[in-house]
């Protein structure tokens, strides 16, 4: 089996050289616990674990999958070991849990976590969900809730889930029908309903599972605003933290999926015997029946959604590294420009190298974009400079839909290309790339479909705060171009970037006009929203990687071409050139389509889509 | 389980209304056997079979797959039944076999075969390979070969394979090391070597398997020109057609693939005990060691490669029909433009409808392109007008790489979108779309990778016959625009088409200049070849579907909007508008990139791709 390899150099570049990590490590929350010197050690340690502990179980999980019988899910034993290993040794939830002393900056945590996700995405999703549940309890629970639950979740004894989706309420979570009935015990409710697509909803990783459940209290308003949030342990937890009786939560099935076969996607029935108890989080419904359950959940969503994009990026990156390695080893065919020179490795073929650089450019561009998102979240969450924190919060919120959607959509295409580089063997399960293709596809649906995020961008993020955060965001783009455009060696690239900026500015104007005339133009808003998102994402990714390339070029000038890092920096410059000259021009094309505003999709009779 | 549905109306439109099938049915080879009135009957019959006999086994094959033990492959029994049913009842190889009285025009055969491929691609590949092998024997074998083999292949008793690839010779088949040694028996050779990726190489469908094997005779020249072609039956066939002893052909393994799990992809060892006999096809190697094995195989390749594109099209079409149906049934969310109207079916959401029309436009555009290819092949093969046959042969050869590659590459993207329409359930194996994604991916690799076809286009097809066939092809495009551009209602579309034509013309000029200055510009030829192919394919598909839309619009004018066919025709007009206004402009974008000729992919140091 091919060995796992990952571009730890690029992660170190981002943290040690590119982002202003002095600022991040200087934040009060972190300054006594972590310092810049920790970066290399942490990344090196985790890279070793990713190679030796985590990646080896990835294929096993895919082949064996999980077993479901009598309401119980059984994972391959190696998964349980790996889960406990990471959680107990402090490489899991503890490092991203707000209530933990070991809390790391997201930038740092996510850098090492990226390698673990790449090595086994089915495993890391259990950790991610546990962290999410613990963070919800930390942020919105009572002191008692925190004491009862968090420690055991962070140390791997208990795992956690988020329960939103129902059989008849997916993207429209406001239509949920799960109910919460008050009991005589204040704060304790009886929960009744069915939830589906619950990652880790039933699993033998841990002795207890803490479900965070959206449910509508009696008398709650309809729609999403009536939903409350409840802590529903699989096994009841006594006030002293000891385990009580089993709660009335039953796993009634798991999904048979295309990929992520060791990630248990459960259908859960709560309160089938009217005996499922949940602890209310936050205040009860107000006099108008409104609860804050969904908004509490959404509070965690920016990180979670950027994290989903990051998950997609990590898988596409892993597939790319495998394909690149294979391309240097596999001898196949002769050069077009020099056929007499004999057979050559695949990478010598121009189109193969083009595919590889396309993957590299997408990976590095998206990674750069994502880490800027985490950087903004670090500042937004922890900076004492409230003005700056607010600005960064706005920027992170704008980036969230871009990252989530662009990374997930691009991953499907790029992993398809990784299979292509392998040729026929890439289609077999002997090599790891086909599993990545199967594992990654869900990420354009998880945590909101691409369309939902596109509407979040044009409907909310571009317009929130009277449009100030988006104007800030656009202004940052413009300023980057103004400040750097005379940088030697990137003249053509800055011209292209400026043109793409202009396209996005025009699109923004157009969308403002649509909102101003919603009766006449409203239908165009959702019709072209996803294209708008793609344009914004490609503009931002292009800028980010160009910014990196400028730094890399300076490093080359400083260190010379004989330095052992020369190859890395030269590769970075080429990634940026490829991205801007080959990928970014898609923005011009999309902008034309948006302005052209063809409505054939809306005019086509619905019946024309149906055959019988 | 969802019921199989297919757009039989579009197939009927192509054969009954759009293509000049009078010309095809008037060809000497067909005029006594088939007539236009047969079309609807044949399509209706096969559609019923596809629904009732073939589609029901598709999921079973995926779930159960095949078993391999002791050198034997066991298929799910339903596969064997379905194979025999189609072959014995004359719905398989007999209809596309040159030596058969039932030979149909490809246009007709392929129209019904499309539904069978869509219903179960793993099944139809066995039929396709059997036909291919039988056609090779018919065209290049002796009378005795024909008598010994063909009948039993066409009636389903024996199946066939094509054996090209070896562990160390994939895309570069000329590097094959399988050998053929003469025996005392004239025309009989001993075969020794290993072949891999042999579809149907070992399978329990039939009592014998007829392998068509490329091997290098002793003293054969190196490279592809030294390869001969041999008939190697799994069980030796006596001169009277009866079965003899087992030949020395052993299946040493099957691939575990991402999809097509009921399609046996075998590794075969020939002559491990020095006792594998093969019958030479064609003449022995000439004095320079040259044989015609590969060119004989390639003679069948145009149809086979268009067929691979057609296979991709059929799967993407099936996934689209399933997704469209689901979108009309599944209630989810509220309209952006009218949220108070309550929950609506998915198809009402603008972006969902946009995805559906994109799939529809791609499906219909590619299908139109493919059937023009089959039409050209029918004329090329059977017309008594030699001039016309030659012209059509040239056009079919140009279309071959376009169809094969554009269909296969687009299918991966479009089936990904079909999963997206379903949302979370699309990622589960309860619905058919994820299987299509897994099944289809190999088609961009089978029968030559996308890059190989791109080089075939720019290196051979654009330049063969002093460039006359490609000039004819371009001229046809120009003439279409000139003749139809004033057609009312499509003014904007013709402007766009003319612009795309101009782009392709400029690209062609540029490539001619590259070939004229290969020393300086040669590297750009392979670097941008795939983009060139995409431009040509999108131009041709756009024209084809626009041509259909003009006809559809005329039909609407004739029949009125109350006619039961109105929806179909209106949908066709919208498909064309969507294709030309949203997909075709990609040609402008690609043409810009080609002209810009960025070489970052070639400049990037190889070491920059490798991480460790």
TrEMBL record, chains A, B:
GO terms for cellular component: plasma membrane. The keyword Flavoprotein applies. Keywords: FAD, Flavoprotein, Oxidoreductase. GO terms for molecular function: oxidoreductase activity, acting on the CH-CH group of donors. Residues 162-270 form the Acyl-CoA oxidase/dehydrogenase middle domain. Its cofactor is FAD. Residues 478-604 form the Acetyl-CoA dehydrogenase-like C-terminal domain. Signal peptide: none annotated. InterPro entries: Acyl-CoA_dh-like_C_dom, Acyl-CoA_Oxase/DH_mid-dom, AcylCo_DH-like_C, AcylCo_DH/oxidase_C, AcylCoA_DH/oxidase_NM_dom_sf, Diverse_Acyl-CoA_DH. Residues 292-457 form the Acyl-CoA dehydrogenase/oxidase C-terminal domain. The keyword Translocase does not apply. Belongs to the acyl-CoA dehydrogenase family. This is Acyl-CoA dehydrogenase. The lineage of its organism: Bacteria, Bacillati, Bacillota, Clostridia, Eubacteriales.
């Amino acid at each position: 089996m091919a060995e796992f390899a990952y571009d730890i150099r690029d992660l170190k570049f981002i943290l040690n050289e590119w982002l202003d990590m002095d600022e991040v490590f200087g934040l009060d929350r972190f300054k006594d616990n972590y310092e810049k010197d920790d970066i290399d050690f942490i990344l090196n340690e985790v890279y070793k674990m990713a190679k030796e502990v985590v990646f080896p179980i990835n294929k096993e999980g895919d082949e064996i999958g999980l077993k479901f019988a009598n309401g119980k899910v059984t994972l391959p034993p190696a998964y349980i070991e790996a889960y406990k290993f990471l959680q107990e040794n402090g490489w899991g939830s503890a490092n991203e849990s707000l209530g933990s002393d070991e809390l790391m900056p997201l930038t740092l945590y996510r850098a090492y976590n990226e390698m673990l996700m790449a090595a086994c995405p089915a495993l890391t999703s259990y950790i991610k969900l546990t962290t999410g549940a613990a963070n919800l309890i930390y942020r919105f629970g009572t002191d008692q809730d925190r004491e009862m639950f968090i420690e055991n979740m962070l140390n791997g004894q208990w795992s956690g889930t988020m329960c939103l989706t129902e059989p008849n309420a997916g993207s429209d979570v406001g239509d949920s029908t799960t109910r919460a009935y008050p009991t005589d015990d204040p704060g304790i409710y009886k929960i009744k309903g069915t939830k589906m697509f619950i990652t880790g909803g039933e699993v033998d990783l841990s002795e207890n599972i803490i479900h965070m459940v959206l449910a509508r209290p009696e008398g709650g308003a309809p729609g999403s605003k009536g939903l409350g949030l409840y802590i529903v342990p699989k096994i009841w937890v006594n006030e002293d933290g000891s385990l009580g009786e089993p709660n009335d939560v039953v796993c009634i099935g798991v999904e048979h999926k295309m990929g992520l076969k060791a990630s248990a996607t459960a259908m859960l029935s709560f309160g089938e015997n009217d005996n499922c108890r949940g602890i209310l989080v936050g205040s009860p419904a107000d006099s108008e029946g409104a609860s804050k359950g969904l908004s509490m959940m959404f509070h965690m969503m920016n990180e979670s959604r950027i994290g989903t994009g990051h998950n997609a990026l990590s898988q596409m990156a892993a597939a790319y590294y495998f394909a690149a390695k294979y391309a240097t080893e596999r001898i196949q065919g002769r050069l077009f420009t020099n056929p007499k020179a004999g057979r050559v490795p695949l990478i010598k073929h121009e189109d193969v190298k083009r595919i590889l650089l396309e993957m590299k450019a997408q990976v590095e561009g998206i990674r750069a974009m994502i880490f800027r998102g985490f950087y903004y979240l670090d500042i937004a969450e922890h900076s004492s400079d409230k003005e700056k924190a607010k600005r960064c919060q706005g920027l992170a919120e704008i980036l969230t839909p871009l990252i989530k959607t662009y990374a997930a959509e691009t991953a499907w295409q790029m992993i398809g290309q990784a299979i292509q580089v392998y040729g026929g063997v890439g289609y077999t399960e002997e090599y790891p790339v086909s599993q990545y293709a199967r594992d990654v596809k869900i990420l354009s649906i998880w945590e909101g479909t691409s369309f939902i995020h596109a509407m979040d961008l044009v409907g909310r993020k571009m317009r929130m705060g009277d449009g100030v955060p988006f104007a800030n965001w656009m202004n940052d783009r413009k300023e980057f171009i103004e400040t750097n455009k005379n940088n030697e060696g990137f003249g053509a690239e800055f011209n292209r970037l400026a043109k793409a900026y202009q396209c996005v500015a025009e699109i923004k104007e157009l969308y403002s006009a649509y909102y101003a005339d919603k009766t006449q133009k409203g239908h165009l808003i959702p019709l072209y929203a996803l294209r708008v998102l793609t344009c914004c994402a490609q503009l931002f990714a292009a800028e980010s990687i160009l910014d990196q390339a400028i730094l890399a070029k300076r490093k080359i000038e400083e260190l010379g071409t004989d330095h052992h890092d020369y190859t890395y920096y030269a590769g970075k410059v080429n990634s940026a050139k490829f991205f801007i000259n080959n990928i970014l021009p898609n923005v011009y094309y999309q902008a034309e389509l948006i302005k052209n505003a063809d409505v054939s999709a809306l005019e086509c009779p619905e019946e024309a889509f149906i055959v019988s």
